[in-house]
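Table S2 (text version). Query chain:
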Amino acid sequence: MKKISRYTALAAVALSAMMMACSVDFETSDNGHLDGYWHMTAIDTIATGGIRDLSHERLFWAFQSNLLDICNVDNTMYHYLLRFNRRPDSLLLSEPCFYDRMNPAGDVPLSSPDSLRPFGINHLNQGFRVLHIGSGTMMLSSDSLIISFKKL
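Corresponding structure-token output:
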């Protein structure tokens, strides 16, 4: 019995030493409610007041740290990565790339915003006002659009 408790104590000491020796850095962000997976539910065109219901389409924005992943789940041809900068009342998207991990050269920077338009992004450096974020919903506004989201 004495040998078992001695081995248990030695194992506990060794485990503690290993844990202290390992320096684990956890990446955190100040994104608050923004971090996570968002389903685009509607786009409102400010000039005309027209609203396009997207609730049955599978267009998603996923935020983590300073990276935004946008995709059309039904068509993998539409999968992009962007950098973003979050302020309390605004969001700036930049450096859009076509997501292409099979390409040895890596993701391909976009030279035109055309492929981003279905996601409400009309410029390579797109700014949005944060109209609302919280309670599982988000609304962003650009000069021409209001985009509504539901968090998953």
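Notes on Table S2: Residues 8-24 have pLDDT under 50 and may be disordered. The CA atoms of residues 40 and 149 lie 4 Å apart.
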